[in-house]
Design goal:
Layout (H helix, E strand, L loop, with lengths): L15 H6 L3 H12 L3 H10 L6 H17 L2 H15 L3 E3 L6 E3 L3 H22 L5 H16 L12 H11 L7 H11 L11 H13 L3 H7 L5 H17 L3 H11 L1 H14 L4 H10 L14 H5 L2
Antiparallel strand pairs: 1-2
Helix pairs in contact: 2-6, 2-9, 2-10, 4-5, 4-14, 6-7, 10-12
């Protein structure tokens, strides 16, 4: 068992703690699903090996549990969660019908794509719904994600570790993105959640959050996916999401959120918060100041953009 001094791979001074613990992270997660669908190899794996249409909450809860375990858990908890993901990835392989290429969930380049979109999407949501971060804090957050990506097999040197590197990575991978019929189905499922027995109790908040997630998707990707809309609708969607996010901070709202994302995602966070204190931006800044961290705190060599564009 891990000792009480084990603060995990990130720890209480991590900028990721306030970013991922913010209620807006749920919207960031939905944004990630929309964008991840545009990568043909990643989408082929989902289409051929996932039952998300019939067990949507289960998929969401598995992802949330992994994020909670790796971001907030001790190293044993994080390692166990990563091992489960790696075992699942071993079964996800096949041939993409769009490109004709072989795909595998444990392919390092696909892992970089999935991680980068998800980790960046949490930041994109926090920029809109959370307290402002400094440029150094944003770089620190992205650098912290490198070790998380490596847990499931991504090569650390390929993972964007700053805002500039993330921007360069997305620009390099953009020519590979496309909209297949499977991607359209996946995007439609997220953007307009179906009225199923499983999702019926959560229709209103899900639709509010899905619309807000769409507002955070870059416009050129929305045009590519055929889901663009006027800017006024984006403004309205974000405004509608804010009171729901505030409600999630109340006991009733927290219970509703837990019923959606699952208790497994909350337990590592609750334990970490009980042990180390608040996860606000202000609290993390105080901890970083005590440790003498004045910049990103983690340095990485530049991501190999040519590798990101290849394949």
């Amino acid at each position: 068992m891990s000792s009480s001094s084990d603060t995990g791979y990130l720890g209480p001074a991590a900028v990721a703690w306030p970013v991922i613990s913010h209620p807006g992270a749920l919207i960031g997660g939905l944004r990630a699903l929309l964008i991840q669908s545009l990568h043909p190899l990643a989408m082929a794996g989902v289409a051929q090996h996932s039952d998300y249409r019939h067990r949507a909450l289960n998929r969401l809860q598995r992802t949330a549990a992994y994020v909670g375990a790796t971001a907030f858990g001790d190293t044993e908890t994080a390692d166990e969660a990563a091992a489960r993901v790696r075992r699942m990835h071993q079964r996800v392989r096949g041939t993409d019908p769009v490109t004709g290429r072989k795909y595998s969930a444990d392919d390092p380049e696909t892992q970089v794509w999935v991680h980068s979109v998800e980790w960046h999407s949490f930041l994109a949501a926090h920029r809109v719904f959370g307290p402002a971060l400094t440029p150094d804090e944003e770089d620190a957050y992205l650098a912290e994600g490198v070790v998380i990506a490596a847990l499931v097999g991504a090569r650390e040197e390929d993972v964007p570790a700053s805002v500039a590197q993330m921007r360069a990575y997305f620009a390099a991978v953009r020519p590979q993105l496309c909209v297949s019929s499977a991607a359209r189905d996946s995007i439609s499922f997220v953007a307009s959640p179906p009225v199923t027995r499983e999702l019926l109790p959560y229709q209103l908040p899900l639709r509010v959050f899905s619309s807000a997630a769409l507002a955070l998707v870059p416009r050129d990707l929305r045009r590519l996916a055929g889901i663009d809309r006027p800017a006024a609708l984006d403004v309205a969607a974000l405004a509608m999401a804010r009171p729901w996010l505030e409600m999630m901070r109340t006991p009733i709202g927290a219970r509703l959120a837990t019923s959606v994302i699952g208790g497994a995602s909350r337990r590592p966070r609750d334990r970490a918060e009980g042990r180390h204190g608040r996860m606000t931006v202000e609290a993390v800044r105080e901890r970083r100041a005590e440790l003498g961290i004045t910049g990103p705190g983690i340095t990485r060599r530049p991501v190999r953009v040519r590798d990101a564009a290849a394949a």
